[in-house]
Amino acid sequence: MKLPRQQLAVLEAVSADEWTTVDALTAQVDEKPATVTGAAFALEEEGLAEVRETTEQDPSLTEEGETYVETGLPEVRLYEAALDRGADEDPVEMGAVIEAADLDGPLVDIALSNFARKGYGEIEGGKVTANPDADPDGDEEAAALAALAAGKPVDDEAVLESLVRRDLVELDERTARSRRLTDEGVTELMAGVEVREAVDRLTPQMLATGEWRDAEFAEYNVAADAATPNPGKVHVLRQAAERVKEVLVGMGFEEMEGPHVDADFWINDCLFMPQDHPARTHWDRFALETPAKIDELPNDLVERVERAHREGVGPDSNGYNSPWDVEFAKELALRGHTTSLSARYLSGEQVGDLEPPQRYFSVEKAYRNDTLDATHLLEFFQIEGWVMAEDLTVRDLMGTFTEFYSRFDITDLRFKPTYNPYTEPSFELFGRHPETNELIEIGNSGIFRPEMLDPLGVDADVMAWGLALERLLMLITGFEDIRDVHGTLTDLEFLRSVEVEY
């Protein structure tokens, strides 16, 4: 009998008595896993080997599990703090023990629920009693977490199941295939199998020389395992942006467009931002060197904006009484927020005069010289929006947010008063992260001030907002670091697998 070289190598490596995995075969024959898998399937078709499929579960630590490896299980920390305060002799106030254990938030409930379960002691009447015979060093769950962190197996199924229930360990299922020689395979191997040279691909050289006419080609096995394909797909941020656009258009909004590089006049001055505001220094904005300034601005609008800055608007406003320079207003920079588009549209500069009621939005990039961290980058997507109508109130604004975020199944919103130079009243929005359960800021909003609207020629109320698209995506998908989706540290596996549900 003759077989291709790779098949013969695998046949000789497979045992007649024990099941051998593809990984073990790959190590023995020194071939690529795909080559070994294809050869093994071919042997199966020839009846020389049989295959067995089993489902295996690979345990790995969740982020919470990794944290406990470093800091200790909450119940162990509670027990050790109780011992330090003599709770093995007399009951100690629970609050003092919790504070000493440095536990807060959800960690308190986790510690209390597992403290008695593991026999560390009792909690009764707001006091903690510690069991002097308990052995935290022998905690099986803590030992299992440490073993997994070190890449070692955990043999105790009950402990592993407990860690999975606590969301400290997750199990990744995979199908494992093992091979074993059949009786026919043993017979053929004992009789002697010769190498049959076969080629697995057609090369330009074979075509040029005519060698292909005499070559024996290996058969393709379409049932063999193949590498997981990673085709191109729409980036998850773009998916989220398109979904936001669909939602806002469905709510009756029209989309705004405008330049990424704009004059400081549109970015800040029209928003009643004083020219000596710290955010307008070169430390916080990306100014252009060439060209450094815009050529022209609408003179009548410039005069009204300057007057608002110097004198205010109406009898109850004094303005800023600070320096104002039109040359500074002409300087070009990357927009620090997309509210510059709102100023252009409200002034009539972009699409002509607008009469209430009106609804506009944009989902575009903004640029800020921020410190990089889990929730900040130098560029981000901002969901800009505003509504022009008569007699608008904060309740209208809150209702709009409730309706918008409900389209993404986000219902736990919090509102916090804040200060903005261009809105009054103003408030920030917070949403609860689905994984960490923490409240994170997701936007800023308010009612535009008369000092902004009067120079723009708007004689109606305008409620407006700037929401962070990346923060919305965090609440939808549960990722925790903006750098997972932006820049050089992106989580490719996350980008390949996650989808924004419609």
UniProtKB/TrEMBL annotation:
It catalyses: tRNA(Phe) + L-phenylalanine + ATP = L-phenylalanyl-tRNA(Phe) + AMP + diphosphate + H(+). NCBIfam families: pheS, PRK04172.1. The keyword Ion transport does not apply. GO terms for cellular component: cytoplasm. Binds 2 magnesium ions per tetramer. Its EC number is 6.1.1.20. It comes from the Archaea. One of its GO terms (biological process) is phenylalanyl-tRNA aminoacylation. Belongs to the class-II aminoacyl-tRNA synthetase family. Phe-tRNA synthetase alpha subunit type 2 subfamily. The gene is pheS. This is Phenylalanine--tRNA ligase alpha subunit. Keywords: Aminoacyl-tRNA synthetase, ATP-binding, Cytoplasm, Ligase, Magnesium, Metal-binding, Nucleotide-binding, Protein biosynthesis. GO terms for molecular function: ATP binding; magnesium ion binding; phenylalanine-tRNA ligase activity; tRNA binding. Its cofactor is Mg(2+). Signal peptide: none annotated. Residues 244-490 form the Aminoacyl-transfer RNA synthetases class-II family profile domain. L-phenylalanine binds at residues 339, 382-384, 422, 448. Pfam families: tRNA-synt_2d. Mg(2+) binds at residue 424. It is found in: Cytoplasm. Tetramer of two alpha and two beta subunits.
